[in-house]
Design brief:
The complex is a heterodimer of chains A (277) and B (168).
Chain A lengths: L5 H22 L8 H78 L3 E11 L7 E4 L12 E3 L4 E8 L4 E5 L7 E5 L5 E6 L7 E7 L9 E4 L11 E10 L5 E8 L8 E8 L3
Antiparallel strand pairs in A: 1-2, 1-12, 2-5, 3-4, 3-12, 4-5, 6-7, 6-9, 7-8, 8-11, 9-10, 10-11
Chain B lengths: L1 H19 L14 H13 L1 H19 L5 H19 L6 H24 L11 H35 L1
The chains are: A alpha+beta (277), B mainly alpha (168).
Chain lengths: 277, 168
């Protein structure tokens, strides 16, 4: 092949560059249509472009689906964790709501009887681990002014009395315990008696030392009588479920259902002083 | 000569199809590599400025016809870049991995800058042409990445051939 001289190459290059610049200038704006070469090239490339695009799209879709699956799976894990967390939060909130209701009732009671008693609220933090005694542990002790034999009540009625005190805790002997007897009277008929626990496997109480002809009947309310020096007078204990004669034929006893649900006690009030008996 | 033409023709077809289809899925920073330019630059680097300029012109004009707008711009810029890199190739030691990459880097910059400057001078770009230089840098580095793959394969296959020859 014959080689061109340098000057001819230079001249040719100038011509080519100028021609290209002119071509660019005239094809830069909108044109009425494509020329033959453009049409030919586009038509020739179209099948190959179509095939590659289809294949690439399929591969892309496959990888997208794979990545989506991974993403959805991790998102699902995240959502599960969120649900668990929300469930926990919900449980805590429900707990707060229940506590709020109970505390409102306690507050109501405190406001009602605040004129008569000095009260300290406490939280139940433990129960007797064995079956034979009915006691509770509360989170207030002598640092909070709690002393032995102070009465413990709830918004429903009498709970028991303080039997042991430490710096920050106290033990409450429930009235359902055999040793937790309370001097009581029937509110409607003013019949006096003593309320004591029936035994370790029941929360029912019995009102004993009732004369045979005492006017005590079903649904009569039993309250503290104030005798004995521990419980102030007038605190609600329970209601009479049934009246039964004693074996000796001289006395009778009444089975009393306490107003307090001892198994579900969470907050209590300790009567630290009596203002106006 | 004919075989070389067929190879370059096949390379052009493959690269223009890939660039107009598959590379769309591999955009980085909004740009895709200019495979046609990479072929022109590497060919120019190894085969000289004459082939670089001619290949740049032919590939460029064909690309322009396919694109259908500013016909001649790719021909002009690829031809110039091919020529420049061809001249550079004669001055650098070719038998290592870095030299062709330097060629591709300089060629891509020349191509991008010339493209912008020509269209700006002809009144097609009304804004600040400086804004075009960030994509030029992106394209240049993407081209370098593609070239590295080419050159790596070429470099090690030639090294193996050399070792085989020496072993014999």
């Amino acid at each position: 092949m014959r080689r061109l001289s340098k000057s001819k190459v230079f001249f040719l290059a100038i011509v080519v560059v100028l021609a290209l610049v002119l071509l660019i200038k005239f094809t830069g704006f909108e044109r009425p249509g494509l020329n033959f070469a453009e049409v030919f090239l586009r038509e020739a490339l179209a099948p190959a472009q179509g095939a590659v695009t289809t294949a690439a799209s399929k591969v892309d879709s496959f990888f997208n689906a794979a990545f989506s699956f991974i993403k959805i799976r991790s998102e699902n894990e995240e959502l599960k964790k969120t649900i668990e967390k929300l469930k926990e939060e919900n449980a805590v909130l429900k707990e707060y709501r229940e506590e709020n209701i109970r505390l409102k009732k306690l507050l109501g009671l405190m406001e009602t009887i605040d004129g008569h008693y000095d009260l300290t609220a406490a939280r139940v933090i433990g129960r007797n681990p064995e079956n034979w005694h009915s006691t509770l542990t509360i989170d207030k002790g002598y640092r909070h002014g709690i002393e032995k034999n102070m009465p413990v009540i709830s918004e429903r009625g009498v709970v028991g009395r303080i039997t042991n005190v430490s710096a920050n805790t106290s033990e409450v002997l429930l009235i359902t315990d055999r040793e937790g007897a309370v001097a009581a009277l029937v509110q409607q008929t003013r019949t006096p008696g003593v309320v004591e626990g029936l035994g370790p496997n029941t929360d029912e109480l019995q009102l004993i030392h009732l004369p045979y002809d005492a006017p005590v009947g079903k649904n009569h309310v039993v309250i503290t009588s104030g005798l004995g020096g521990i419980f102030p007078k007038g605190l609600r204990i329970g209601y009479v479920k049934g009246v039964y004669p004693e074996a000796n034929g001289l006395m009778k006893r009444a089975i009393v259902e306490p107003f307090v649900d001892f198994d579900r006690l969470e907050e209590v009030l300790i009567v630290t002083g009596v203002k106006n008996q | 000569m004919i075989l070389q033409g067929v190879i370059f023709g096949a390379l052009f077809l493959a690269s223009v199809v890939l660039q107009s289809t598959l590379f769309h899925f591999f955009k980085i920073g909004g740009v895709k590599p200019d495979l046609i330019l990479v072929i022109v630059l590497l060919s120019a680097f190894f085969k000289g400025e004459r082939l670089g300029a001619v290949l740049g012109f032919i590939y460029g004009i064909l690309e322009d016809l396919i694109v259908g707008r500013y016909i001649g711009i790719q021909a002009l810029t690829k031809m110039t870049a091919g020529y420049a890199v061809g001249v550079l190739g004669k001055k650098l030691f070719q038998d290592n991995l870095i030299s062709p990459l330097i060629g591709v880097f300089i060629g891509s910059i020349i191509h991008g800058c010339l493209y912008t400057v020509v269209l700006f001078c002809l009144g097609f770009y009304s804004g600040n042409p400086i804004h075009n230089f960030i994509p030029i840098i992106h394209i240049t580095f993407y081209n370098l990445l593609i070239s590295l793959v080419f050159c790596w394969g070429q470099f090690y296959s030639s090294k193996k051939r050399l070792l085989r020859t020496l072993g014999r």
